From TrEMBL, chain A:
Belongs to the amidase family. GatA subfamily. Keywords: ATP-binding, Ligase, Nucleotide-binding, Protein biosynthesis, Transferase. It is an enzyme of class 6 (ligase). One of its GO terms (molecular function) is transferase activity. Heterotrimer of A, B and C subunits. It comes from Candidatus Collierbacteria bacterium GW2011_GWC2_44_18. Residues 130-157 are annotated as: Disordered. This is Glutamyl-tRNA(Gln) amidotransferase subunit A. GO terms for cellular component: glutamyl-tRNA(Gln) amidotransferase complex. Residues 25-450 form the Amidase domain. Its EC number is 6.3.5.7.
Automatic annotation (TrEMBL), chain B:
This is Aspartyl/glutamyl-tRNA(Asn/Gln) amidotransferase subunit C. InterPro entries: Asp/Glu-ADT_sf_sub_c (IPR036113), GatC (IPR003837). It comes from Candidatus Woesebacteria bacterium GW2011_GWA2_44_33. It catalyses: L-aspartyl-tRNA(Asn) + L-glutamine + ATP + H2O = L-asparaginyl-tRNA(Asn) + L-glutamate + ADP + phosphate + 2 H(+); L-glutamyl-tRNA(Gln) + L-glutamine + ATP + H2O = L-glutaminyl-tRNA(Gln) + L-glutamate + ADP + phosphate + H(+). One of its GO terms (biological process) is translation.
Length: 474, 122
């Protein structure tokens, strides 16, 4: 029999219905796990002081009305760049240390309205500037598979929370890889919705033209449900789409992938990629074929150019967004920014400055157009493209030292889809050196249902979604 | 498909090897309202030179006649009715709650005029 922390969202709800346990039982169970393991993993920066009281109210609601909200009583871990009333929010930066949000972010409002309980806020790269969680001003998070390894980032705390089973599901955000890459390194499921599918209001901005909130979960099915809850036009974010949100969970549980055409991106099998990682991607392609899909090689621009585009776009937008941190209305002074944040603000200030705007920013945005056009051409024929999420498994703590482009290099395979605003599911596809490797299944904008359907079918027909025994690994 | 650019790099503002000097870094820091330590100035000068070199690879891609993309989903001119929506407004005491210095229900801000411009405004 599964223990409480091992249950999926559906299984939690079954447990509530059968009265096998209460919401208070479940929340207390997670809080005791967090108390035990968080000192070793550094996943949570702050806990919700009202979690047990909220769980008690939910138990009362379930007794009176049953389960009529989609995430009722689901304990979640929330990345610390989402503003949450009553739980401090820092974006893992000293500049916001002690900040108590004055309003609730749009996506966390939706999660609360759906009945979720927030256990606490998770560690991340400071201001999401990184792919390791090592740039956090509050110390790195450790990978539950091996505490000497990084969890990835920037949503490293949320991915580690799901992997270590310190929450049923988690919320992350992705600018370029920040959901998929930590999910890959921690061996869990990450889902990046299309840009503009979920609102950014109250999500501390990094790069406004690519920031996308999304779930990290135990299964594609759980991710699909959380994604559905947080999606939709947000009156507080003019860049959200008015397109109706499909009921993602209803697209799952396909028995095969007959009629699905998948493109395997040739350039994503990098020349310097380890053979054992390449093999897992080729094995995944074979698995898709055995499920009835047609898999063919497709070609995209050399991903090295995505590094240049992403670096310019992201640094430029960072320099603009972080200008608001002046220590006057909230937070501390700009001296509190860490080195990585200063580096990004500075480079963005440079690329936007007089005389350089056309050469760098406009040029990058033109190459971005070419990338978008290439994807559009591919999606005329193919339902999805696949490749590795990251060139290799989790790197060791300290790997980011003196590597100012660490994140860009680690995210080389996910930057194109991010700057193009596409949707993409990341699922585990095997292990090397005892560490998980992630597969990305990327679809055209607003094709969330398709990406989730393909990822779900793959996941149910493989057994790579595993959880480490943290009593042994830690 | 991705032929080396036929454009003259100098014409569109590119030079192939850019050296970002410590003086450049100091100028950027002032624009960005950041105070840097001497070792950070030197560190960033070296790192930015490398990063700009990498960015300049984009010059290998011909983008003449290619428009820039600023918004990926194609939305344009999203507006709302010009009416007061109280759900968008923080009550004054909540808005002021996180500020260190307030006076009579307002934020206190540092003086920005008639100051020595070499000083930080904060």
């Amino acid at each position: 029999m599964k223990q409480l922390h091992e249950l999926t969202i559906k299984e939690v709800h079954e447990g509530y219905r059968s009265k096998s346990f209460s919401c208070v039982d479940l929340v207390k169970h997670f809080l005791s796990r967090i108390e035990k393991y968080n000192p070793k993993l550094n996943v949570f920066l702050a806990l919700n002081p009202n979690a047990i009281a909220q769980a008690a109210a939910i138990d009362k609601e379930i007794a009176e009305k049953g389960i009529d909200r989609e995430l009722l009583g689901i304990p979640m871990a929330i990345k610390d760049n989402f503003l949450t009333i009553g739980i401090s929010t820092t974006a893992s930066s000293h500049i916001l240390e002690g900040y108590m949000p004055q309003y609730e972010s749009s996506v966390t409002s939706k999660l609360l309205a759906a009945g979720a309980i927030f256990l606490g806020k998770t560690n991340m790269d400071s201001f999401a500037h990184g792919s390791s969680t090592e740039t956090s001003d509050f110390g790195p998070t450790h990978n539950p598979w091996n505490p000497d390894k990084l969890p990835g980032g920037s949503s490293g705390g949320s991915a580690a929370a799901v992997s270590a089973q310190l929450a049923t599901a988690a919320l992350g955000s992705e600018t370029a890889g920040s959901i998929r890459q930590p999910a890959a390194w921690c061996g869990v499921t990450g889902f990046k919705p299309t840009y503009g599918r979920a609102g950014r209001y109250g999500c501390i901005a990094m790069a406004s033209s690519t920031d996308s909130p999304g779930p990290i979960a135990k299964t594609v099915a759980d991710a699909a449900l959380v994604a559905k809850v947080i999606s939709g036009q947000d009156p507080f974010d003019a860049t959200t789409s008015p397109a109706p949100v499909e009921n993602y969970p209803t697209f799952l549980n396909n028995k095969d992938l007959k009629g699905v055409k998948i493109g395997m991106v040739k350039e994503y099998l990098l020349t310097d990629m380890r053979d054992d990682v390449k093999k897992l991607i080729l094995d995944a392609a074979e698995k898709f074929r055995s499920l009835g899909a047609i898999v063919e090689e497709v070609s995209l621009m050399d991903p090295k150019y995505a590094i240049g585009v992403y670096t310019v776009v992201q640094r430029s937008e960072v320099s603009s967004n972080l200008a608001r941190f002046d220590g006057i209305r909230f937070g501390h002074t700009r001296d509190s920014f860490c080195e990585e944040t200063k580096r990004r603000i500075m480079l963005g200030t440079y690329t936007l400055s007089s005389g350089y705007y056309d050469a760098y920013y406009k040029k990058a945005q033109a190459v971005r157009t070419k990338m978008i056009d290439q994807f559009a051409e591919i999606f005329k024929t193919y339902d999805a493209v696949i490749g590795a999420v990251s060139p290799g498994p989790a790197l060791s703590l300290g790997a980011t030292k003196n590597q100012p482009m660490f994140g860009e290099m680690e995210d080389i395979l996910v930057e194109q889809s991010s700057v193009a605003g596409l949707t993409s599911a990341g699922v585990p596809c095997g292990f090397v050196d005892g560490l998980p490797i992630g597969l990305q299944i990327t679809c055209d904008q607003f094709q969330e249902s398709k990406a989730l359907m393909i990822a779900d079918c793959y996941q149910r027909n493989t057994d790579f979604q595993q959880f480490p025994d943290i009593d042994k690994t830690l | 498909m991705y032929l080396p650019s036929t454009e003259n790099p100098a014409k569109i503002g590119f030079v192939h090897k850019v050296t970002v000097t410590p003086d450049d870094v100091k100028k950027i820091a002032k624009l960005a309202n950041l105070k840097l330590q001497k070792d950070e100035v030197d560190l960033f000068a070296g790192q930015f030179t490398e990063t700009v070199d990498m960015i300049n690879r984009l010059n290998e891609i011909n983008t003449s006649d290619v428009p820039a993309t600023y918004q990926v989903t194609g939305l344009t001119n999203i507006s709302r009715d010009d009416v007061i929506d109280l759900t968008r407004i923080l009550p004054q005491e909540v808005a002021l709650r996180e500020a260190k210095l307030t006076s009579h229900g307002f934020f206190v801000v540092p003086r920005v005029i008639d100051t020595d411009e070499t000083e930080s405004v904060i």
